[in-house]
């Protein structure tokens, strides 16, 4: 911490005085433009940077990094700033390096399906681009309209179709990275196989901008499915959700691309939201809802599988009701219910978001436990006017055991946070889960990593950090414990 405190002392004045002739070329923003870059989209984390730089190439960023390294200036890399753990905004007055001006598609191999692009490219833009050639991006997020692929890789984002397409550790073929001292790793190969030495790119995938700043990405894109089916079911219990998942895997097999669940509290928040109007696909309420998506290449084959699945689920009584999207418009409408959860909750109040991995059979136990914990601390269930907590809901990716538990409150209040932490982390640790499934550690969970990782593993991570960033200049206070 002492080293970081020294580093933070004079970043803005040192950098701005060092590059007076390059402010325009490097797009150094004026003070009145900085609020957006200093605060995360939830309004929970806010920094005090007076210098935001938007380089247009790895070479420009390299020059900036060298100046910062020589002058002991701390840097925060920033993409679309859609993170949920405070990883992409300053803690104090660190210089912000925003990658939004690096947004070019460099190449696309239509034979191999390999895309090479700048880190600042928006995920949805990339998906639309490769769609024209019959491909798709291997990840899909609710924030796809604003998040950057570089940030996705830096956080190892999972998303809605992790069940089918897996982790970015498998999809990313190469990275271009600018190191804290300004050196550039030019590793944008597009080979599917490369066993030459250590696979350095894996260190940067999920490192949250603490080892280097990703400026270019080479990624494998899967063929776009010719047949997509989407169904939404209403169920009476979480046990029925688990049994339905087993049945869906049995009948859909290799074409299953997503299996999402949403509890009633979360579903109702979206239905009643003023953010966007949603038509409720069900006439009766249910305790749980699931979205099942299949993606294949043979429409008749996929139709048959889905029909057999529906017959089995109805005959077994696992589902109480269900709707099957008939066209692309209905598919988008059903997915919108799931994707608009974060924004709908945000309009209800300030939201405490916890992204965890648990054994599937334990996932909803945590939601129930958090509700009881809030009632025990008298912040929920007191009276509608006095409750500090407005809603507790759970939703997520059943296929990979990833639960998103959200607590909407009247504000970011000590009484609420003290009730939730470390309670949630202790619960996750007790079932050998992970406190960070796909959103990263950032500032929020840096000191909580011990709930998921042993001391030897944490020490190895710290040593790797010192190899790449011996001065501790890159995204300080994030990702790893600040205490030695």
TrEMBL record:
- UniProt cross-references to Pfam families, sorted A to Z: FAD-oxidase_C, FAD_binding_4
Q: Which cofactor does it need?
A: FAD
InterPro entries on file: FAD-bd_oxidored_4_C, FAD-bd_PCMH, FAD-bd_PCMH-like_sf, FAD-bd_PCMH_sub1, FAD-bd_PCMH_sub2, FAD-linked_Oxase-like_C, FAD-oxidored/transferase_4, Oxid_FAD_bind_N
Return the GO cellular component terms, semicolon-separated. Answer: mitochondrion
Does the keyword field hold Glycosyltransferase? no
| Entry keyword set | FAD, Flavoprotein, Oxidoreductase
The record's catalysed reaction(s) read: (R)-lactate + 2 Fe(III)-[cytochrome c] = 2 Fe(II)-[cytochrome c] + pyruvate + 2 H(+)
Q: Which domain of life is it from?
A: Eukaryota
Which residue range or ranges hold the FAD-binding PCMH-type domain? 45-224
Recorded GO molecular functions are:
D-lactate dehydrogenase (cytochrome) activity; FAD binding
Family named by the database record = Belongs to the FAD-binding oxidoreductase/transferase type 4 family.
Recorded protein name is: FAD-binding PCMH-type domain-containing protein
From what organism does this protein derive?
A: Malassezia vespertilionis
């Amino acid at each position: 911490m002492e080293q970081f405190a020294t580093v933070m002392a004079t970043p803005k004045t040192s950098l701005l005085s060092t590059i007076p002739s390059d402010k325009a070329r490097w797009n150094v923003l004026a003070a009145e433009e900085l609020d957006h870059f200093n605060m995360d989209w939830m309004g929970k984390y806010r920094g005090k940077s007076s210098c935001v730089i938007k380089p247009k190439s790895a070479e420009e960023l390299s020059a900036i990094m060298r100046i910062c390294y020589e002058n002991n200036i701390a840097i925060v890399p920033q993409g679309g700033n859609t993170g949920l753990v405070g990883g992409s905004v300053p803690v104090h007055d660190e210089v912000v390096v925003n990658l939004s001006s690096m947004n070019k598609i460099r190449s696309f191999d239509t034979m191999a399906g390999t895309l090479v692009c700048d880190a600042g490219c928006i995920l949805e833009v990339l998906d639309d681009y490769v769609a024209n050639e019959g491909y798709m991006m291997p990840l899909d997020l609710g924030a796809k309209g604003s998040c950057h692929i570089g940030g996705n890789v830096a956080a190892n984002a999972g998303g809605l179709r992790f069940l089918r397409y897996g982790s970015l550790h498998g999809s990313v073929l190469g990275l271009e990275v600018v190191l804290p001292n300004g050196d550039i790793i030019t590793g944008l190969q597009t080979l599917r196989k490369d066993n030459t030495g250590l696979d350095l790119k894996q260190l940067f995938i999920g490192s949250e901008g603490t080892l280097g700043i990703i400026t270019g990405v080479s990624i494998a894109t899967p063929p776009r499915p010719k047949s997509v089916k989407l169904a939404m079911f209403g169920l009476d219990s979480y046990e029925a959700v688990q049994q339905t998942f087993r049945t869906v895997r049995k009948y859909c097999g290799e074409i299953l691309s997503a299996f999402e669940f949403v509890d009633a509290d979360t579903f109702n928040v979206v239905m009643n939201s003023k953010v966007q109007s949603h038509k409720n696909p069900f006439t009766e309420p249910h305790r749980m809802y699931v979205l099942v998506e299949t993606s294949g290449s043979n429409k008749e084959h996929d139709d048959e599988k889905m029909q057999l699945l529906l017959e089995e689920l109805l005959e077994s009584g696992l589902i109480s009701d269900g709707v099957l999207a008939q066209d692309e418009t209905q598919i988008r409408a059903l997915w919108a219910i799931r994707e608009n959860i974060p924004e709908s909750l945000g309009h209800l109040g300030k939201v405490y978001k916890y992204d965890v991995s648990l054994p599937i059979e334990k996932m909803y136990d945590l939601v129930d436990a958090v509700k009881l914990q809030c009632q025990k601390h008298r912040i929920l269930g007191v009276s509608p006017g006095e409750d500090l907590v407005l809603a507790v809901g759970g939703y997520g990716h059943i296929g990979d055991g990833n639960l998103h538990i959200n607590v909407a409150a009247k504000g970011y209040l000590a009484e609420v946070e003290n009730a939730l932490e470390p309670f949630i982390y202790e619960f996750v640790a007790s079932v050998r889960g992970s406190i960070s499934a796909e959103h990263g550690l950032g500032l929020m969970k840096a000191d909580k990593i011990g709930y998921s990782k042993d001391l030897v593993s944490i020490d190895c991570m710290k040593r790797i950090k010192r190899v790449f960033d011996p001065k501790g200049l890159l995204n300080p206070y994030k990702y790893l414990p600040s205490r030695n």
